[in-house]
Amino acid sequence: MQRMVELHCADRHGSPRGQACAECAEFLVYVQRRLEKCPYGDDKPTCAKCPIHCYKPAQREMAREVMRYAGPRMPLRHPWLSLLHVLDKLRRVEHPMDVRRRERD
Fold this sequence. Notes:
Number of strands: 0
Radius of gyration: 15 Å
Distance between the termini: 36 Å
Largest sheet: none
Structural class: mainly alpha
Order of helices and strands: HHHHHH
Low-confidence stretches: none
Helix content: 55-70%
Shape: globular
C-alpha cells in the first residue's frame, strides 16, 4: 500500500517521489495501525479477497481511490510487487474464526 500511496500522491498531489503529503502520510499511519491489528498478521490476503473489512468508510474510499489510480501503473513502476500481489490474489483465504474453530475441534 505504501508504494501505491507514494505513486498516487506524487502524481495527484505533486509530492516528491518517495514522499507523501500530510493527508496521504496520515492515511499510511492509519493503514499501518490496521495492519498491526489484523487477525491474519503477516498472512493478510489482498483487500479484494479479505473477508474482514477493517477500514472505516472514509479510509476505505481513500484506499479505493489510491488503488484505482495506482493499480494499473504498478506493473511499470514496481513489477516485482505487482507480481507478488497477483500471486497473493490466487491464494485461498479462510476466515480467522474458521481456522480457530477447526483448531479447537
